[in-house]
């Protein structure tokens, strides 16, 4: 009997420990802070909390964790923009933009984005909190967000369209709870987060009757816009040229040019010569093919034989391995400024992503320190930098065209795309291609803008680009705010 009693106690303790590893479904911790950003000194409030995800019968299925920053002493919320921020993955937390881009704190890194010790955070003098309130949202299984009902259907959360549907419903509740329906609203997403916010723009309009003023895509994915065969192969070349320029691997005449001037030439070559040549396959003459081989090698700084032997089809993974092979290095995927060291110099792809290990090195201790010590958000739940969201249903992705539809239906809605020249995963030229294909008629082109920076996927890690990119956000918000009593209509 005594043994049975002890087993029961141990079982209860085990259950209690397990419960402590799950977040509260609905909670908020409020802290007060001060910041100098964009030359202004002001007080602000941070709300770190969780908000439930319910099923259609009101049962709690999961909780989504968020951090909500508001500038104090704002009298008129109807004039105060709200910036709703998502990161990507899918399965990635919001930590990246919260602690390195738009938020009130920056992690401790050098001016190029490399980790420094001691780990931690400091004030962000470039935060856009001077102009807009910000909420960072962690979808289910990222950050501190979790599924709470073990019987919940994972397909409710883990899929391109499922993700958009439940987050739109969640945002409706958040905006209502915080009295922000009258505020101008903006979505910003990075990487897969661009797929998410592109789909949300239309879902919020059609299912939640919530209309936006702007969408910002940081290092966008393909957004469901097909590019196969010759198009997919050809569009890589401008990224190759940009990265070769950064590593000083080009011939003297090309290396001596400004990056922007060089890329203008390479983009034109890609569309006018390389794309149709690849499309022609073996029907192209040997002489024409050899001229293109030579030019591709010149722009990419790859050996001529590598280009020739791959029939003008150079994969990005081969490029990351080959560009600095003779120096004993690989280059990064998401940011090709970063260097890696493989076990063997031979091979066709790097052993690991040099940039991602560097980022996790600095972001992971910073976010854990920040929530515990500065936001007073104390929990035994692990902060998932990357959480399990598999299997992920990626079918029926029309998010790019959904964003276009949202813009067509909402004359207020504007778009800004931000890309790093040295991003090899979601490269800048494919980001341009997205815009061209989303609106082939050009009728919405006046409401689209494109910005590029001399860095990679997270362009804001480089100090000079952080300054420029946050200023671009401020300008975009300012430009997209309608004048008082300006009607949302086409003339």
Determine the N-to-C terminus distance.
Answer: 84 Å
How much strand content do the residues show? 15-25%
List the helices and strands in order. HEEEEHEEEEHEHEHHHHHHHEEHHEHEH
The CATH architecture name of the largest domain reads: 3-Layer(aba) Sandwich
CATH class of the largest domain: Alpha Beta
Fraction of residues in helices?
Answer: 25-40%
Tally of separate domains? 2
**Average pLDDT taken over every residue:** 94
Q: How many beta-strand segments?
A: 14
CATH H level, superfamily name of the largest domain: Alpha/Beta hydrolase fold, catalytic domain
Q: State Rg.
A: 24 Å
Explain the overall architecture.
This protein has 491 residues and is an alpha/beta fold. It folds into 2 domains: 20-225 and 361-480, Rossmann fold (3-Layer(aba) Sandwich), CATH 3.40.50.1820; 229-355, no CATH class. 39% of the residues lie in helices and 17% in strands. The chain contains 15 helices and 14 strands. The protein has helices at residues 2-20, 95-100, 160-177, 192-208, 229-234, 237-246, 252-255, 259-280, 286-300, 304-309, 316-322, 354-374, 399-409, 428-438, 463-480; strands spanning 27-37, 40-54, 60-71, 82-86, 105-107, 121-123, 133-138, 146-147, 185-190, 214-218, 330-331, 339-340, 414-420, 448-453. Strands 1, 2, 3, 4, 7, 8, 9, 10, 13 and 14 form a 10-stranded mixed sheet that branches. A two-stranded antiparallel ribbon has the order 5-6. The protein has a two-stranded antiparallel sheet with strand order 11-12. A hairpin with a 5-residue loop joins strand 2 (40-54) and strand 3. The longest helix has 22 residues, at 259-280. The radius of gyration is 24 Å and the shape is globular.
């Amino acid at each position: 009997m005594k043994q049975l009693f002890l087993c029961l106690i141990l079982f209860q303790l085990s259950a209690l420990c397990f419960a402590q590893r799950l977040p509260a479904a609905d909670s908020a911790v409020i802290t007060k802070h001060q910041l100098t950003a964009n030359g202004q000194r002001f007080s602000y409030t941070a709300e770190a909390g969780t908000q439930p995800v319910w099923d259609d019968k009101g049962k709690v299925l999961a909780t989504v964790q968020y951090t909500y920053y508001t500038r104090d002493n704002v009298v008129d919320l109807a004039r105060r923009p709200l910036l709703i921020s998502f990161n990507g993955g899918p399965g990635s937390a919001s930590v990246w933009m919260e602690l390195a881009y738009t938020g009130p704190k920056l992690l401790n890194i050098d001016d190029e984005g490399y980790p420094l010790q001691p780990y931690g955070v400091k004030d962000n003098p470039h935060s856009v909190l001077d102009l807009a309130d910000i909420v960072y949202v962690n979808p289910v299984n990222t950050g501190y967000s979790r599924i709470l009902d073990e019987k919940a259907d994972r397909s409710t959360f883990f899929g391109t369209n499922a993700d958009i549907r439940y987050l739109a419903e969640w945002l409706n509740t958040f905006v209502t709870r915080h009295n922000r329906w009258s505020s101008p609203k903006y979505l910003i997403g990075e990487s897969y987060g661009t797929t998410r916010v592109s789909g949300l723009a239309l879902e919020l309009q059609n299912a939640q009757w919530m209309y936006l003023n702007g969408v910002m895509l940081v290092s966008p994915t393909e957004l469901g816009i097909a590019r196969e065969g010759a198009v997919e192969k050809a569009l890589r070349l401008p990224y190759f040229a940009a990265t070769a320029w950064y590593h000083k691997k080009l011939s003297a005449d090309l290396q001596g040019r400004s990056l922007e001037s060089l890329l203008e030439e390479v983009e034109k070559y890609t569309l006018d010569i390389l794309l149709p040549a690849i499309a022609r396959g073996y029907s192209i003459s040997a002489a024409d093919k050899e001229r293109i081989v030579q030019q591709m090698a010149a722009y990419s700084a790859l050996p001529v034989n590598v280009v020739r032997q791959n029939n003008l089809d150079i994969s990005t993974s081969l490029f990351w391995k080959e560009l600095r092979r003779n120096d004993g290095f690989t280059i990064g995927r998401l940011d090709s400024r970063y260097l890696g060291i493989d076990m063997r110099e031979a091979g066709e792809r790097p052993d690991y992503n040099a940039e991602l290990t560097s980022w996790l090195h600095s972001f992971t201790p910073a976010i854990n320190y920040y929530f515990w010590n500065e936001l007073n958000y104390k929990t035994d739940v692990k902060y998932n930098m990357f959480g399990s969201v598999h299997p992920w249903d990626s079918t029926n992705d029309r998010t790019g065209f959904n964003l276009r539809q949202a813009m067509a239906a909402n004359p207020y809605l504007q778009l800004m795309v931000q890309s790093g020249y040295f991003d090899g995963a979601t490269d800048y030229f494919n980001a341009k291609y997205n815009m061209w294909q989303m609106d082939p008629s050009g009728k919405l082109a006046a409401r689209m803008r494109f910005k590029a920076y001399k860095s990679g996927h997270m362009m804001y890690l480089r100090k000079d680009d952080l300054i420029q990119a946050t200023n671009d956000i401020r300008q975009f918000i300012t430009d997209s705010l309608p004048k008082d009593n300006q009607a949302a209509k086409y003339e």
